[in-house]
Amino acid sequence: MHVAVLMGGWSAEREVSLMSGAGVADALESLGHRVTRIDMGHDVAAKLAEAKPDIVFNALHGTPGEDGAVQGMLDLMGLTYTHSGLATSVIAIDKQLTKLLLVPAGIPMPGGRIVKSETLYDDDPLPRPYVLKPVNEGSSVGVAIVTAEGNYGNPIARSTPGPWSAFDELLAEPYIRGRELTTAVLGDTALGVTELKPLTGWYDYESKYTDGKTEHIFPAAIPDEITQACKQIALDAHRLLGCKGASRSDFRWDDEAGVEGLFLLEVNTQPGMTPLSLVPEQAKHCGISYPQLVQAIVDEAVKDRALKEKAP
């Protein structure tokens, strides 16, 4: 097939997307596909129209490649593409919308609320410790953990750097002590559970994408009931949101509270495909090579297109 790989773009996750796209393109070429690599700019529609690919592999991260904007464009152009569609992308990129869909279905997620950043200079929105994060960013971009002993001030000082100076609104959530877990879903199968142990600090952007900054333990050394709960919740969330191809669900687990201490934080519909990314890592442990993983994601998109064409 002729596959156009969309990568790059202008989000805060541009560099990660370029790494994902390069890996995907190399894998597709190793499988014998013809590949057109497109670093997405504002002329992306013209480039795609000129390339006339059989399928688009969406290797973008963040907005506008993960929030439904690119998906809507590809739908209008009549192009088949990998990963989740427009509606799923719009909901999953928005942490609050995701809660509104998943919590009523029984998925455990932290409480919290949307706050105006300006109000943080007057008072804390929640008892400390709590977490502040942008509503629609990934890769821990713009996340701050506000503790009683932290250096943000009490209340947060207006002059202190943080996400409140970059975003008008933030999601405030209670801080969940404990351990960082993640589960990949490929197609209709939850692959397993990885525990992430940053060597210093917490699992922020630098820890995610700098080699040697975080220890990945797979399978996670956790009770079987927690492993099974992570896999079931990740699969249920994948299905409820309507995800396609691969997704990754991130959890916090309070290991002093058993299964009641397990909370889904978010579902990533465009998980990374870099050398340090968790979906390829879990797939490898399950006997699925990187090229096989890429091909499986392409195959599901092709299958989904065929089903739509047969529909009345």
Automatic annotation (TrEMBL):
Domain ATP-grasp: 99-299
Keywords from the named record: ATP-binding, Cell shape, Cell wall biogenesis/degradation, Cytoplasm, Ligase, Nucleotide-binding, Peptidoglycan synthesis
PROSITE patterns: ATP_GRASP (PS50975), DALA_DALA_LIGASE_1 (PS00843), DALA_DALA_LIGASE_2 (PS00844)
Keyword Cytoplasm: yes
Name of the molecule in the record: D-alanine--D-alanine ligase
Enzyme class, UniProt record, top EC level: ligase
Similarity comment text for this entry: Belongs to the D-alanine--D-alanine ligase family.
Catalytic activity line of the entry: 2 D-alanine + ATP = D-alanyl-D-alanine + ADP + phosphate + H(+)
InterPro entries membership: ATP-grasp, ATP_grasp_subdomain_1, D-Ala_lig_Van_CS, D_ala_D_ala, Dala_Dala_lig_C, Dala_Dala_lig_N, PreATP-grasp_dom_sf
Gene: ddl
Main location: cytoplasm
Cofactors required: Mn(2+); Mg(2+)
Involved pathway(s): Cell wall biogenesis; peptidoglycan biosynthesis
Pfam short name (any one): Dala_Dala_lig_N
Organism: Sphingomonas glacialis
Function in brief: Cell wall formation.
Compartmental location: Cytoplasm
EC number: 6.3.2.4
Highest rank taxon of the organism: Bacteria
